[in-house]
Structures are given as C-alpha cells and as structure tokens.
Give the backbone structure.
Amino acid sequence: MNKNNKATIHDIARALNIDSSTVSRALNDSPRVTQKTKDKIIAKANELGYQRNHLASNLRKSKTYTLGVVVPRISRHFFSSAIAGIEETAYQEGYNVVICQSLEALEREQKIAETLLANRVDGVLISISMETSSYEHLQALRQRNIPIVFFDRFCDIPDTCNVLIDDFQAGFNATEHLILNGSKNIVHFSGTQNLDIYRNRYNGYKVALEKHNIPFREDFVLSSKLMKEDGVENAKKILALPYKIDGIFSANDVAAIGALQYLKEQGKRIPEDIAIVGFSNEPISSIIEPPLSTINQSGFEIGKTATSLLLSKVNNKTSKSISETIILKTNLIERKSSVR
Amino acid sequence: MNKNNKATIHDIARALNIDSSTVSRALNDSPRVTQKTKDKIIAKANELGYQRNHLASNLRKSKTYTLGVVVPRISRHFFSSAIAGIEETAYQEGYNVVICQSLEALEREQKIAETLLANRVDGVLISISMETSSYEHLQALRQRNIPIVFFDRFCDIPDTCNVLIDDFQAGFNATEHLILNGSKNIVHFSGTQNLDIYRNRYNGYKVALEKHNIPFREDFVLSSKLMKEDGVENAKKILALPYKIDGIFSANDVAAIGALQYLKEQGKRIPEDIAIVGFSNEPISSIIEPPLSTINQSGFEIGKTATSLLLSKVNNKTSKSISETIILKTNLIERKSSVR
DNA sequence: ATTAAAAATACAATCGATTGTATTTTTAAT
DNA sequence: ATTAAAAATACAATCGATTGTATTTTTAAT
C-alpha cells in the first residue's frame, strides 16, 4: 500500500504474485483473463478495500469523465431542476458535472468557456445568457472537438445539438387560452429579442391572434428583461394605453407576478378585468393569489434529455458532428388567474 | 504535439531544446528557474496554446482538487444559493465541486458518501438529511482523512467543522417579535426533532415566552416535515384548539405559507387575527399576500464561509483534526404578516 | 587565471492504470 | 507422447506532470 493507505492494482498483483496488467484486465472484466483468476483478484481487491484511482485511469484514457454545465443562474427554479436531471443522468453513466453560472453576462460566459476548456471537460451543456450574441467562445470548444448541447435556449452553431421546448406552440396555446376565456385586447410581455425562445413565444402569440381574427398591434408587445420590476412597469404602461386591456400573456412567471400584484393594488380584478398567463411554472406561480396559469416546462426532463444526447455524442465519436434538435412538449396549467 | 492536438510540457521542452522538468518548474514559477528562461518558456507555451493537464498534475500530487457537496435538495432556494457561494469560493482557489442531493433520505446519503470516497474528493461540504441519525458513512470519510464541514444543519462528529446560523437567537427574536406585536397564544411549527436546527429554534421560542412570562404549553408545538401540506394540517389543528391562537412562529417558510393560505380561506385576517413569522426568507415569502415576516439566512454567505473553512482544512494538514464551529448572524425581516 | 561556491539546468524515477506485444501455459489433435 | 493452435498471463511502454538528486554552468573571490 502507498502512503495514503490506499490499495493499488500493484498491491493486489503483489499479494497474488501476478502481473498488474492482469489485475487491471480482471477488474475491467476483460475476456483475456480467466474466470478463476478474476474471482481471486476481485476477492483480494475487496479484502484490501481497493478503489480505482480515476485520475490515473482517466489520464491513461485521456478522458476526464466530466461534463461542463453552464446556466444563467443556479438559483432559478427551472435551472436547478434541470441540473438535478443532468446530474442524475450523468452520474448513472459515471460522469461528474461541473456547474457554472453566467449570471446572464456574456463576459462571464466567455471566462467559463475558457475554464471548461482548461479543465478538458468531455462535453458541455449550456443555456446561453441573454447577452450572448457572439459565439467565438463556443466555437472554440467545438474546435477542440468538445460536443455541445444547448438546452432551453436555442443556439445556431454548426455541429451542435439543441434540446428545447416548443415555445411557439406554448405561446400559441397560452394566447388561445386567453382568447377562449373571453380576452380580446391581449398584451404580450416579451424578453430580449436575441433569444429564440422569446421570439418563438412572440410568434405563437401572433399566430393565435390571427387565427381568431384579432388584429395584432405592435404597441401591445412590451419587451424587457422580464424581472419583477419590469412586470410592474409593463402593468403601468398597460393602464396608460388607450385600450381596455383584458389579457396578458407574459413570457415568464416573474414578470407576470409583478404585473399581477401591481394590477391588484390598482383595484383590478384578476381574472375578471384582466386575465393573466405566465410561463415556466415557477413554484411561486401556484402560491400567488390568484394562482397563476402558466406553461409547465419540466427542467428535470429537459436536463435528462439533454444529457443523454450529449453522452451519446461523447461516446460516439462518429456521430459527434451531426446536428440534432429535440423538441419537448409543454402543457398549459390552467389556474384561477385566467379562467373565467 | 500529441494526437489530440494538445501541447504538453514535452512539446515546449523539445521546441526550446531544454528539459521538461525545467519547463514544469518555470510554469509553476519555481525560484529554481531563471527569469530569462521562464520568459522564453512562457512565450513558447502561449505560442503552442499549452494548457496544463490537470489529470496528470493531480495524479502526481495525489490531489483531485475536487470538493464534494451534499445537500438535501438542489432546487430549494436556500441550498441553490449556498451552492452558488460554495462554487464561487471553490473556483477562486482552483477547486471543482461535485454536487449531490440526498433528497432527505439516509440511504441516498450513504450511497453518495461512497461515491465521493471513490472519487477521492479532497473535502466534503454537507447539510445532512432529515433522516440522518446514523453516522458511519460520514465517519468513513473522516477515516480516510477527508475533512468535512457541515453547514446549516449541525452534526456532532469529532474532528469536523460546522457553519451554522444562530437558530436559537433567531427563534427567540421571531417569537419576541410576535409578542411585542401583541400575540399571546403563539404556536410553534417545528421540524423533525433529530435536527439541531429545529431543536434550537424551538428553544428560542420557549425562552422568549419565558422572558415575557407567557406560559409554555406542550400542545402549542406542532412537529412535522414542514411541507406545505403540513402547514395546512397544522392550521386545521390550531383552529380546533380550545384557545384563540393569535400568533404562529413556523420553523420554515413553506409550512408558514401553507397555514397562511388556509387560514385566509377560513376567513382569518393576517396579521390582525393571527400574526405569522416564517423562517429562511424564501423568494415566495415576499410575494405571498400579505408578505411573510421571516428570518433571513443568506445561503450564499453560509456557502462561502463553509468553503473557506473547508479549504483551510484541506490545505493545512496540521489543523485538519481541529473541530471548529462558526455561527453566522441572521436578521428578522418584518413584513405585513406580523406587524400590527 | 584558477577555484570554490552558488545558481541553473538535466536526469531519472514516480503517481496508478491501461494496452499492444511477447511469452508461457493449457488444450486438443495426431 | 509430441506438437500446433489457442488461451492465459507477463513484459514493457505510455498517459503528462512533478520532484529529489546529479550534473553543468555561472558567479565571485583570490
């Protein structure tokens, strides 16, 4: 045994008067070692409390068995759920996960990409920041042949994969739901327009209006970073509009809740005067009063799916360069904020 | 260069007709290499895009530069904030972090401990599960000389550290606040009694009553797992009590909110009829109506403090065996749910 | 200019596991 | 019993960096 009291394959080999290469093969269940010898080796390994040294093994195989995960903010419920899904899938396959948060800042995201490169991760799962409009840092990863899977937020880089939800359909469903519940003047809270998710939700909104012959109005779309304060600001703008707004489709729950609370303070009844639908099914959405209708997107599922896809790329060098996009279904959760 | 197109110290050595040991020393800024040579080597390293292979380096140094983090549930806001603090501090010192969730189950926690052992983490940060009442799996880590820092949830194992908040004081403050706002019949929602945090909050509650000459009643303490449904159940029990309850101190926000919503449904006015104080300052607590008074505990700060402490143990083999407990301050956030 | 001391650099082993090739042992056919 | 083929095991190099020791070069003192 070495100084750290940890057994190595050489300790096992010595104890059995056998070569360490045979021990290695036995422990990896190679067909080149007879069962009798394997049994002997495994017994001795257990006796000595042997545990494979992954550093040595990975060095030899020049794999780190580590995946990099980049999210805008770990404390956002959707992302922590996604991380839970990512970890579960990764651990099952013997991979570790390094988690980083960009805090929605491009500069931080670029630094993180460098760090992941230096750490030689075997693959990267990323939900790009709202600021991300240049892609060199991501292309640098691809140049080193590190597979990338984008999740939730679409990114169009050659030879990478995307795992998304059907934002267009979700936006359509949310808006149509408002229409079917009697709303006519429906505003839309949108996010920063360089993210596809927001453009798609926006388009869903537009098409739902069209389908029901409701004229689309540019000034009914309010873009912001969708923070709570943005929701309050948007609500103020709504009340100042020369139309009687009776419905809101917000591209996230946080802004929807900001608006909901402000409108209640101003004496508006929800949903009677104004019906509201959010997006994401954050935990708060079920607790707010009235409970907020919203689009449910399972972060856990998205995380699991994205990780499976990434691991298939990591393990299959052949298909590494094939782009793929998986679109997961969402469902509308109807709560009191929109049902009349 | 090797097949992966990644430069090694040997590539640099060859290019400069110099020994790789000198290259290694230069890149580690050893005083044994002259500045002139260092400059040359660093220039060539940049030219070749050299990045140290941590696997090789760590193998040689027999350190993994990885910390294990175990939390009950990653999606709980307090824990995801703590993780953010842990990661920030760890990354600054060049450590990676492996995150695991016990889901409040002892069995899962035991498996995780094994995995961390197999991964040879350099240290462990853990907030034990509610079920954790046996400690062999944690002692096994100590036997391998892996330092452990417990955070948030106290655990009494020799040669380990704790980073906690002053739950007793917080419980005292919350209760006294209710008393000062006119509550006389105050119930306490407590958690599972094998966790010190809940015992301490309970004791703070008791002592605050004593100080203000309010008799303590055993049947005013309701223990549960503090889920939302537990809060609802507790609220039902309160209404069935032969006393007019006018205050609730809940050991967490989730149960407090369950009760708050149920009591409102039953026509109780908050805070006029019943004042409520929660614990943890979860994001929902400020959004619920009325906003919930609560004890603010910064997960981010706790995570940072715990990690600094752990890294000092990891780097100082000498003091590794000294126990230490750091207690962080909390503050009461007074919101509408309790202020009359 | 010579020489001892100090500084800089090279040599070689090592961390622990893996893997292609060589050698030994076993099996099976005559 | 001999021998060729097949199976099992041993040998030796390797992944890339680190580090104690040996050697060479430089510096400074006479």
Remarks:
- The interface with chain B takes residues 4-5, 51-56, 58-59, 62, 64, 66, 74-75, 77, 80-81, 83-84, 87, 91, 96-101, 115, 117-120, 144, 257, 261, 283-284, 287-289 of chain A (CB under 8 Å).
